[in-house]
C-alpha cells in the first residue's frame, strides 16, 4: 500500500512536466537494461552507451543510430525497440490509461489532467474518449500500413517481408525513422507503393490525434465544421511539405538528374520526412547541397503538429508566430487567423517555445563544436536539429561521435521528446507564487 500511496502522491504533483520527464526517463532506462541483455543481441560487443543511445532514440521516436539495428539486434531485440517506439509515439501513460478503461475502470483526476497536458488538449475534449479513439486509430492505421508494405516487400522478393512490414509500419506511424535497412529506403526510391504508404503513415501520425478526434466528433457524428486547430494543421502541413518539395525538385542537383517520376517522388518524400520528423530517406543525405540542408533544417525545426507522434516546435506554433508578425506589421492588438482571434496565452506559449527551442539548438551545437573539429558546422547543426526535432536524418556523422558527443545528442533527443519548454519547466519551475508577484511597470525601447 505504501508504494501505491507514493505513486498517487507523485501523480498529484502540480509540476506535470516533471512527471512526464521522469516517466519517459523510466522507459529509456528499462529499454537500455533490456537491450544490454545478451539474448537480445546478435553480437556481444555492443557497449552500454550505444544501447542507451538507441533506447533514447527509440523512446524519443528520433531514429538516429550509432550502430546498425539489423546487424546488431536479433528479432527479440528489434521487438524491444518497436515496443519502445510505440510507447514513445503514443505518449506517456496512454497505453496504461487505455488498459484501465478497457477493463472497465476509471481514470483518476490526476491522471486525466496529466494526459490532457501531455497532448495539449483544449478544454472541450473528453480525455477518456480521446484515448480510446487514439489507440484504435493507431492500431487500424498501423495494421493497414503493415499489410500494404507486406505486399510491396513481397513483390520485391525481400526476406522477412512480414516482420519488415510490421516494423516499418509502426516506425513510420510513430515518425521514429528506425529502419531495418542500413540505407533506409534508398533502395525503394522508384517504388511508388512503398513511398506512398510510408509517406501516408508518417503524415497520419504527424498531423496529431486532435484532428482524428475532431473529424470523428464534428464532421462524422455532429456534422459540424472542424476546429480552427485542425484547419491550421492541415493547411500548414500541406503548404510546408509542398514548399520544401518544390525547392528540392528544382534546385537539388542529386534529384534534378533523375527521371520525372523518381524526381517527384524523391523531392516529396524528403520534404515530407523532414516536416513530419519521421527521418527516413530515399537519397543519401550526405550528398545534398547546402541549399537543401538549409531547407530540410527549417522543416525539421518547424516539425509536426501537436498531440501527434512527431517533434519540432509544431506547425501551430509556427503559424501563431506568423500571426504575431502579421498583426505587428498591421498595427493590430489581436492576432487573428481564419476570422478567429488567438488567445494571448497561446501566443506567449508559442514565443516561449521558439526561444527555448533555439536556446537548446544553440547550446547543443556549441558543446559538440567545443569537443571536436572533425565535423564542420553545417554537419553539426543538421545533426543537432535532427536530434532536437526527433527526426533522425543525418549527414552520416552519428556513428563517428565520441562518448561525450553521444551523451550530448542523447540529452538533445530527450529534450526534443519532452519539449524544450516543458524540459525547462520540469527542472526550474518550483515557486508557485512567483507569477503572482507584481513589479513596477516601465517602458522598454
pLDDT < 50 stretches: none
The assigned structural class equals mainly alpha
Shape: globular
Radius of gyration: 22 Å
Describe the overall structure:
The protein has 445 residues and is an all-alpha fold. The protein has one domain. Helix content is 65%, strand content 1%. The protein has helices spanning 2-11, 16-36, 48-59, 69-72, 75-90, 94-102, 109-118, 127-155, 161-173, 192-206, 209-221, 228-251, 253-256, 260-275, 290-302, 315-330, 344-371, 377-388, 403-418, 420-428, and strands at 336-337, 340-341. The chain has a two-stranded antiparallel ribbon. A hairpin with a 2-residue loop joins strand 1 (336-337) and strand 2 (340-341). It is globular, with a radius of gyration of 22 Å. The termini are far apart.
Quick gist of this model?
The protein has 445 residues and is mainly alpha-helical.
